[in-house]
UniProtKB/TrEMBL annotation:
<dbReference type="Pfam" id="PF03099">
    <property type="entry name" value="BPL_LplA_LipB"/>
</dbReference>
<keyword id="KW-0436">Ligase</keyword>
<dbReference type="InterPro" id="IPR004143">
    <property type="entry name" value="BPL_LPL_catalytic"/>
</dbReference>
<protein>
    <recommendedName>
        <fullName>BPL/LPL catalytic domain-containing protein</fullName>
    </recommendedName>
</protein>
<feature type="domain" description="BPL/LPL catalytic">
    <location>
        <begin position="31"/>
        <end position="221"/>
    </location>
</feature>
<dbReference type="GO" id="GO:0004077">
    <property type="term" value="F:biotin--[biotin carboxyl-carrier protein] ligase activity"/>
</dbReference>
<dbReference type="InterPro" id="IPR003142">
    <property type="entry name" value="BPL_C"/>
</dbReference>
<comment type="similarity">
    <text>Belongs to the biotin--protein ligase family.</text>
</comment>
<dbReference type="GO" id="GO:0005737">
    <property type="term" value="C:cytoplasm"/>
</dbReference>
<dbReference type="InterPro" id="IPR045864">
    <property type="entry name" value="aa-tRNA-synth_II/BPL/LPL"/>
</dbReference>
<dbReference type="InterPro" id="IPR004408">
    <property type="entry name" value="Biotin_CoA_COase_ligase"/>
</dbReference>
<dbReference type="Pfam" id="PF02237">
    <property type="entry name" value="BPL_C"/>
</dbReference>
Amino acid sequence: CQFQVPNTNANTSLRLQSHLPRPTNASFNVDSFFTSLSTCRFGRFLIWSPRLPSTHDVVSHNFSELPVGSVCVADVQFKGKGRSANVWESPPGCLMFSFTLQMEDGRIVPLVQYIASLALTEAIKDLCFNNGLPQLGIKIKWPNDLYLNGFKVGGVLCTSTYKSKKFNISVGIGLNVDNKQPTTCLNARLQQIASMSCQLRKEDILASFFDKFENFFDQFLSQGFKPLEELYYQTWLHSGQRVIVQDTREGQTVENAATIQGLTSSGYLLAIGDDGQMCELHPDGNRSFQGFLLSFSFRGETWDEFALLTGDGPIPDSM
């Protein structure tokens, strides 16, 4: 990879790669990734290993020593990170990576997970189109899951710390590319809907993701989320969804039906109740919040709050 050395005009190449024996199946090809990558910053510093406890731990624990935009990739993780301190193991066939970025405005940090989710879905769309493959129709399930044909195939996790007036953000992403157990994966779905033998490569997906993310992130920093909002709504599952909201006021708890309209400026769900009242929905049960999301109803199927927010597919909430 390449990054600018301070006080020089030269580019320095640097690659950190494990010397452990490479797996014989589905190992990440570093050279292929760099051949496909066309970013200026993101993904230009790569750490790869066939097996790690957690890519998220690598980048978050070494944040100050890594250039912003560094990425860590592992073929297998055995202590992957999820929300609510969940720990899990990812099998071969999944694209597992974590990368770094910095921001100064803490008010918009929660929206980074939406930028990452959107960049990944758009990257896969572009790869399918450019390679003459059928579109997979991957959708975003709020707040941070990716769904394919009714099954979860991906997740995003963002964590941050504050230092020297900047938010140091670690973004972890997992995507089920080749492992079709226990439900499905991208390439299994491609083989189902395409008459020819075809597949997506993890290296191309990661390179395309960073191309999209860098573009979206720069736009986000300069113009906010508004220019990306319509594209996000085209990709998510929730426009017009019916939800049950629990509202606690003055010691009384009331459940009301509402319809999702979109996102609020702070990144939570915006819904309108059957009584005409607008409400902001948060993904947990803190009673100081205005609304507590109890359940979703979508296409005749109801997901309770736990299933919606923790996911129910082969990829946990992230890395």
